[in-house]
Amino acid sequence: MKEKISFFLSRQLLSIVLLIIFFIVSSLNDALWLSSIDEVLFVTGVFILIYIILIKVIPLFNRNLAGMEILAFLLLFIILLLPKLHSNIYEVSNGKIKLSYLLGLFGFLFLIVIYQLNFKPKTSFTKLKNYIITVLALFILIEICIIPSIFKDRNLLKTEILNFEKNKFDAQFKLTKKPNIYHIIFDAYTGFDGLDRYWQFRDTSFLNYLRTEKISFAYNAKTCNDNTLESITSLFNLKSFNNETKFRSLATKSHVYRKLIQKALVIETLMENGYTISNLSIFDIHDKKRYWDFPWLDPNISFPQYCFNQSLIGNLYKNYQSRNIANNNLLIISDLKQKVQVKKTSPLFTYAHLIMPHTPNNFDKDGNYIGNISNDKDAYIGELQYCNKIMIELIEMVKKDDPSAILILQSDHGSGMIPSNYDMEVSNILSLVVAPDSLQLEWPDSMINQNTYKHVFNALGQYAIPITSCQD
Fold first, then answer.
1. What is the dihedral of CA 82, 86, 87, 93, to 10 degrees?
2. All structural domains of the chain with their residue ranges
C-alpha cells in the first residue's frame, strides 16, 4: 500500500494536475453546472495544453524538478485560485483583507522558492509537494461530495424560474395612452429619507426645485432588495424573484437574473403595445444588447468566460475596465439627451442605467473629474449632488422637447455605506416622476420599486393592478 502511495505521489506535476482538477470542479459547482459540455471540454483542453507545455519546459531549466513543480504550482495557484480564496476570506474578515495583501504574501513565497532553487539547489521539496497533493486531494473530494447537493440546488432553481415565468400576470395590458417613457437609474443613490436620517444630508436646493416645479417624488421610496440584480428584476417584472437557491458566486447569480431582466414583463408589454426599445443600460433587454459591460456584474456567462473572470487576470481586467465607468456614464447622458430631442415615429421606451453615485466616485458636485475614489462619504455626496444637477437638466429638457412624455428617475438601491443602519439605508431609494397632469399618474410617498410600472400601466391603460408590499 505504501509503495502504491509513494508511486502516486512521485508522479511528475501531480500537484499541477490536482490543482487544475480542483479549479474545474469547484468552478462547475460555483456555476451550478449550468454550463454546456462543449464549454467544459474547451476549458479542459486549454488546461491540458498548459500541462503539456509545463511537462516540456520545466526540465529545460536544469533545476530541482520537485522545486520547479512547486514554483509552477504557486504561479498557477496565484492566477487561478487566489481570487477564490480571497472572496471567502473577504467575507469572514468583513472586507478588511484585500486581494493585494494575499498577492503580496504568495508572491513572497514564490520568491523564496526561486531563492532556494538558485542558491540552495540541494533543498528537498518532496515533503512540501506531498503535503500540497494531500490537501488538494482532500479539497477535490469535498467538492465531489457536494455535487449532489449542487444538482439539487440547480434543479430547484430551474423550478423556481419556471414558476416565476408562469406566474407573471395573466392579463395582457393594452395601453390606451402611449407617451414616450424615459427611465433612468442612478445606481446606489440613497433616497431622500435615507440621506436625511443616516447621512444627515439634505440637498435643499434640489428638493426646493422639485417642489417648485411640482415634480412628484417619493420621499420614503423603498426597494425590497439590496442589490442591483434583484432590484432591477423586481422593477421590470412587477414582483420579486424570491428564490431559495444559494449562489456560490456573483457570476452565477448574474447569469440567472440577467435572463429574467432580458425577458421582463414590462419590456414585453411595451413592445406588444408598439413601443420601440432604446437600451442605454448594463443589461440586455429583449433583443437589444446592453450599452456596455459593467465588469463587476460578470456580463459574460459562458463557462470559459466565467473561468477567466474568476482568475487573477480576469480580476485585473475588471479593474482596467472599471476605469471606463466615468466615460461611459457621460456617453449615456449624452445619448439620452439626444433620444429626448429627436423626433419619434412611434412611442419610445428608453432605459438608461448610470453607475453613479455608486462608488468608486469620479465627479465632484460640479461635474469635475476627480479620479476613482472608493468608499469615501464626501466623494459620494459630491457625486450625488452632481447627479441632482443632471436630473434637473433632464427634467428641463423633457418638459421642453417632449412635454407629453413620462420621465422616471430612480435608483436600484441605496449606497450601503452606513454599516450601523445598513438594511434601512440601502433599501431607501430615489424615486421621482415627471408626467403630464392629464395622465393622472399616482406616485405615492412610500413607493416600492416593484410597483412602479403598476402605477404607470394603471394610468396608461385605466387598469387597477393590485399594489403589493415586500411581504406579498
1. 170
2. 2-145, 172-461
pTM: 0.89
For residues 267 and 286, the answer to whether their CB atoms sit within 8 Å is yes
Instruction: Give yes or no for a contact between 281 and 185, defined as CB atoms under 8 angstroms apart.
Output: yes
Paired residues of 448 in beta bridges: 222
For 442, how many CA atoms within 13 A lie in the half-sphere containing its CB? 15
pLDDT in tens, 335-360: 999 999 998 889 999 999 999 999 99
Give exposure, 41-61, as e/b (b: 16+ Cβ within 10 Å). eebeeebeeeeeebeeebeee
- CA 418 – CA 394 distance, rounded (Å): 29
> Top-level CATH class of 172-461?
alpha beta
Answer whether 407's CB lies under 8 Å from 398's CB. Answer: yes
Single-letter amino acid code for the residue at 245: T
Please say if the pLDDT value at position 75 is more than 90: yes
Residue 397 grid coordinates: 429638457
Query: What are the cell numbers at 134?
Result: 494531500
pLDDT given at position 258: 92
Note the pLDDT of residue 7: 44
pLDDT of residue 439: 93
Asked if 321 contacts 293 with a C-beta cutoff of 8 angstroms, the reply is yes
Residue 302, number of CB atoms within 10 A of its CB: 15
User: Which pLDDT tens digit goes with each residue over 248-275?
Assistant: 888 888 988 999 999 999 999 999 999 9
Is the pLDDT confidence value at 363 over 50? yes
Alpha-carbon distances, residue 328 vs 124, 294, 351, 353 (angstroms) = 54, 10, 15, 10
Find the helix packing angle between 2-9 and 126-145, rounded to 10°: 100
